[in-house]
Amino acid sequence: MATVVTEGERTTRRRSIFARPTAMHGWWSWVTTVDHKRIGILYFLTSFVFFIIGGSEALLIRTQLARPDGHVVSAQLYNQIFTMHGLTMIFLVVMPMSAAFFNYLVPLMIGARDVAFPRLNAFSYWGFLFGGIFLYSSFFLGGAPNGGWFCYQPLCGQPTTNGSFYALGLLMLGIASTVSAVNIAITIINMRAPGMSLFRMPVFVWMTLVVQFLLVFALPVLTIGLFEMFFDRRFGTNFFRVSADADPVLWQHLFWLFGHPEVYVLILPAMGIVSEVLPVFARKPLFGYPVVVASGIAIGFMGWGVWAHHMFAVGLGPVANSAFALSTMFIAVPTGVKIFNWIATLWGGDIRFRTPLLFSLAFIAMFIIGGLSGVTHSVVPSDYQQTDTYYIVAHFHYVLFGGSIFGLFSGFYYWFPKVTGRLMNETIGKVHFWLMLIGFNLTFGPFHILGLQGMPRRIYTYSPVSGWAFWNFVSTIGAFMIATSVVAFIYNWWRSARHGEMGGADPWDARTLEWTISSPPPVYNFEEEPVVKSVDEFWHRKYAEGEDGRLVPVVAGGSDTAEHNEEGPHSEEHGDGEHGIHLPSPSYMPVLTALGLPFLGYGLLFSPVLIIDGVLLLLIGLYGWAVEPPVAED
Amino acid sequence: MSHRTARRLAATGAAGLALVLTSCAKTRLPQDTFNPAGPEARTEAGLFWLVFWIAVAVFVLVEGILVVALIRFRHRPGAGVPKQVHGNKRLEIGWTILPAVLLAGIAFPTVGTLISLSHKPAGNILELNVTAHQFWWEVNYPSLHVKSASEIHVPVNTPVYVSLRSIDVIHSFWIPRLAGKQDVVPNQVNHLTFEADRAGMYRAQCAEFCGLSHANMRFQVVAESQADFEAWVQQQQQPAAKAAPGSLEAQGQDIFEHGVWNGVLFTGETIPVHGCTQCHTVEGIPGGAKVGPNLTHFAGRAAFAGAIFPNNASRLALWLRDPEAVKPGVDMPNMRLSEQEIEALVAYLESLK
User: Which of A178, A595, A617, B130 is the most interior residue, by most CB within 10 Å?
Assistant: First the structure.
């Protein structure tokens, strides 16, 4: 226990199948890393690349629809592009980008040195990367999936829809997500610092925990559906085959029973981020902490009982439609409660309009619109007109872009100084913010009108007679404004990473444990295990609260210094008194094992030889994984 | 900054709302749900407006409080640390119950309306069978023995009860100005009631993504007076027009019936075809199959090919030259017809009044 083993040390190795990787720098060290912070960065960079790809697809869509009878892309290509845009933004952007935040921040926020299973964590990342590449390789192997992101049967059973790539790609991504969800849930449950009871956890960690449970329970439902549809396609089974009298609506139930909890998987992380950012920039604690947490949990539970509101027009009958209308209306209650608590957090605060806060405010403002249009969808007779039109496209972009993406950008600006040690440029940040907010509303606001004017979603062309030209053109302008704002963001990122102002350990006068350590954090995170005595632990180390609710600084010299991490006034000697820090060693096995997945996928589609390769990779990877110790021995 | 921020927010919101409202109120677009022309669509639009105005009130209230908070509590130089408020039980209970009550208020008309819309109407109704195909609509009046494709004629002020079937994938039957949509699901018969209370042509469109030419799966509803409707029915019940021997139309009919051109059996370059009857029916011509639309009174329809083209000679010629080029994914193959063959076929088809 007393030995010091860090990534920085060369270790002598026993004989094993492979010599343990030892590189600490260069790209090879990133391939073999098991450090949650590096994996978090990998998750972010990869998902950002996919964000650019998915965004480019969106621009193509908008260019095609800018005028009636557009001929920029063919119907064949258009259907692939809109399908891949949806799949990309959901499975390859918002989910993994949230995972980037989970990975990087959860251990730091709960005072842990890594996640529970570091190698499994690396496997999740590689599974995600290979799954994404597998899905995109379809463009070069006969065409990308083109049946829509929910791939309704029996259309998606038709050979021309490339549904096999869809099924196998999502299965790979599902494996990666499930593994990651188990890992992070266990991390949160088991590895919190002493004193950090569940109700002392930051709200972001709470929302993360809820999301992991949603993933663990929702993904298997999708997995069943994907297996069934793949078996239909590959082995001629009859799960959804109409000619064999199957009921294709079964797929919709399976898909949306996964799909609706998935919506909360996409939005809760951003809600967690907003709940962290608002108190810091309002210099007030989160209003109603237990209520915000409880409403997050309530959303997690209620999210299982609303799936058929995606299916009001399917013909489930008035009883089912009424039941799901009611459950849908009432899930708006805990969502509203969160919004009220956020506004109450700002009320009476000392609000500093820095870029992270602006994005969080936009989240609230836009999410209110998305939430209200969501309520109009729960009004079933009205939804008969709205469903499958641009109105629903408007609704879910207000929730997932206005909500999730704005929330994730808020988190990026907020934690960038922690990850890099430097602050993002405020001026460019504000340019990015305003361009994106205006562009967003210009793009998706008109969709409400277009939908109610009768424009169905997923059409590659429309007639000039329809009268939809004007708002479509406006929307296209907005889309290019968003693209411009992303360029500003990339420039800001690139510039700030090199020349940004140094931020120190705690540039925002923040409240949670990750700000107690240096920026960027040392590889072992915490020199000594922190001991937690309250919510907003770090804040309470800096300030004492008088009886009238006024603050009294505990430490002379203010709050913008990095001194706090050294002093650790309340941390007690705990556990490894000799400063021994065990860190897991880098490993080849996660990436090797994950590499088996795409081989299996291509094998199922093209050649049994590849299946054998895939199985061998999996077996070697898993065997090597099993026999090598988590920490390489001296 | 925050003043400007808030003002900008407020201005943008107000301008946006104004734009939305003027846009909704004034448009007279062919598929506009804001311009209902029948009781079903009107009920649905009414419910929408009810919820919309409640939503606007909530929007103004909540976003207003947010903006006020941002202005009032913006950072001012020299301001002390704000009072640390952790929560308020009464407020929490209040803003949990209030929305719940509001939503319950919306729930009653929602459930009431959706149940009443699901009933089969009583009294004098018109029954209609519609079968969806990739990518066109087969229309059948069971009691009148009339068949049509992608064009539905109905009398005004008569509830139309549609039974919906699909022979391939899921589609959605939607006439925005007359009724909300109803999905058309294979192995399941769904029903929808709609009614037009004004004569006119109503554009309609498949609303569930159904493949390559989903965008090209449109149809039209022609609502007319009871007398006009009856006249239309009578005319539709007649057998197809016969071409006069020796005319251009007769040559077209030969191609249609037998795939014969100037006495020579015509075959497409890729697929052997024995006339258009291999897929299409014209009543009175033997051997017609039912894969494609029934063409008995083709020339009487305002549009064709899933109602994407106005029915005229030049469009029809364009279509026959290469269907796939103008409607991706269509079942009808390119017959590689010569220009004379196309001319004859067009003449024949346009004679099928």
Answer: B130
Is a pLDDT exceeding 80 seen at residue B270?
Answer: no
Mean pLDDT of A526-530: 92
The CA distance from A616 to A608, in Å, is 13
Q: State yes or no: pLDDT of B10 exceeds 70.
A: no
Cβ-based burial of B248 (10 A; exposed 0-12, middle 13-18, buried ≥19) = middle
Q: Which of A220, A211, A218 is nearest to A102 (CA)?
A: A211
Residues 6+ apart with CB under 8 A from A155: A147, A148, A161, B169, B170, B209, B210, B211
Question: Cα separation of A216 and A198, whole Å?
Answer: 20
Judge: A385–B44 Cβ closer than 8 Å, yes or no: yes
Asked whether the beta carbons of residue B185 and residue A314 sit closer than 8 angstroms, the reply is yes
Residue A531, phi then psi, degrees to nearest 5: -115, 130
* Each residue's pLDDT tens digit, A439-473: 999 999 999 999 999 999 999 999 999 999 999 99
Give the 3-state secondary structure of chain B: CHHHHHHHHHHHHHHHHHHHHHHHHHCCCCCCCCCCCCHHHHHHHHHHHHHHHHHHHHHHHHHHHHHHHHHHCECCCCCCCCCCCCCCHHHHHHHHHHHHHHHHHHHHHHHHHHHHHHCCCCCCCEEEEEEEECCEEEEEECCCCEEEECEEEEECCCCEEEEEEECCCCEEEEECCCEEEEEECCCCCEEEEECCCCCEEEEEECCCCCCCCHHHCEEEEEEECHHHHHHHHHHHHCCCCCCCCCCHHHHHHHHHHHCEECCEECCCCCCCCCCHHHCCCCCCCCCCCCCCCCCCCHHHCCEECCCCEECCHHHHHHHHHCHHHHCCCCCCCCCCCCHHHHHHHHHHHHCCC
Burial class (CB in 10 A: 0-12, 13-18, 19+), A9: middle
Higher pLDDT, A545 or A341: A341
Cα–Cα distance for residue pair B342/B321, rounded to 1 Å: 7
Taking CB atoms and an 8 Å limit, are A154 and B168 in contact across chains? yes
Residues of B in contact with A385 (CB under 8 A): 33, 41, 44-45, 48, 176, 180-181
Read off the pLDDT of residues A586-613 as tens digits, 9 standing for 90 and up.
999 999 999 999 999 999 999 999 999 9
- What is the pLDDT at residue A283? 94
- Is the CB of residue A391 less than 8 Å away from at least one CB of chain B? no
Q: How far apart are CA B114 and CA B172, in angstroms?
A: 18
Tell me if the pTM is above 0.90: yes
Asked if B328 and A290 come within 8 Å (Cβ–Cβ), the reply is no
| Mean pLDDT, rounded, of chain A | 92
Residue among A314, A378, A462 minimizing CB distance to B215: A462
